[in-house]
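Q: A reviewer asked whether we had any structural model of the full assembly, not just the individual parts. We don't, so I'm hoping you can provide one. Inputs are below.
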Amino acid sequence: MKGPLVLIGLMGSGKTSVGRELAARLGWPWVDLDAAIVKVHRRSIPEQFARDGEAKFRARESALLKRYTAPGPRVLSTGGGVVLSPANRARLKGCTCIYLQASAEALAGRLKGREAQNRPLLKGQDVRRVLGRLARKRGPLYRESATLTVLASQGSPKDVAARILARL
Ligand code: S3P
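A: Here is a predicted structure for the entire assembly that you could use as a starting point for your response.
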């Protein structure tokens, strides 16, 4: 398997929890891209969107994606919007890229309360509707970038990680 192993998919698809589990099983370091952006820029993601704007957040995301997609044994959990930029998608081509696919219904069920509050694209919105729109727009981009697609609507992070490793 060609490292890094990168998890992509919509918000709530389990990129963080499955990534942590995969890293533990492989004995590889784990990096969460959203957490790295918060650490480097010392502001929460809602604050970055509100004070600096989404475009700046995306530029920061691209810069750190570049850093963490350098070749090597590593598991990288990304944010759902990472596939929007063609340059980011080109970077993902050099990685083993796993698309955690789940229906908008299943994701909306997971993204309630605080989970939606922490996500600027969902806060105060009809979550099911926004996720449906994002799924239509981004589904082709996730598929284009993926080495492997795994259904992530059901099963624990451990189950999903085991299914991924069985197929790599
Ligand atoms: C976003 C997803 C979030 C975070 C930001 C934007 C998106 O990450 O990067 O709120 O555009 O889908 P998660 O997918 O980890 O929630």
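A: Points you may want to mention in the reply: The two ends are 7 Å apart (CA to CA). The longest strand covers residues 96-101.
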